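Re: export button greyed out
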Amino acid sequence: EPEVTQTPSHQVTQMGQEVILRCVPISNHLYFYWYRQILGQKVEFLVSFYNNEISEKSEIFDDQFSVERPDGSNFTLKIRSTKLEDSAMYFCASSVDIEAFFGQGTRLTVV
Amino acid sequence: ILNVEQSPQSLHVQEGDSTNFTCSFPSSNFYALHWYRWETAKSPEALFVMTLNGDEKKKGRISATLNTKEGYSYLYIKGSQPEDSATYLCAFGNYGGSQGNLIFGKGTKLSVKP
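Workaround output, generated via the alternate export path:
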């Protein structure tokens, strides 16, 4: 069964460092998303991506964040200069209709 | 600010008990209501997506109902089993947001004791 895959499953980085979280969406899907969940809090929408551009982003998705679909299969989230408060579980999702399918998440720990 | 509320926050039941939880969401600009089942260390698994007022969906022992006019959805589990233990998330999609821009509740954590 097709699934969304994310790598790495866990990443530890030092504050101020750049990180890239990677996702491979389901192949025939057209819409791609990033969500995050800070421990103990709600899952929050970060950004949606369609037709090679951002279609919507939340207030969380500031200039430190960027997304890219570099090669037609990968979908990446880059955080330029990580902060302690960026520590969270980051989920990638993709959809072709109104139902989104999620990856297993990347746990990002900023120390 | 659009907000989705789920209750209860956590629930402990015995194997064989039937249970239900609630998701409340804004009743305006409704597009879709999603239920996900999320086990630790796994990706959220889509259970149901409902779009019409009065929708009822069923998958095995799990069912869900939708009332868009009053802004709530119920998830029912009949005869709970230990493998039903998970966090159940509901998510609201509204017109005006891009497809897939879902607003999540905090979830209901269900624990089923054998």
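Chain B touches chain A at residues 31-32, 34, 36, 41-44, 46, 49, 51, 89, 91, 93, 97-107 (CB under 8 Å). The button fix ships in the next patch.
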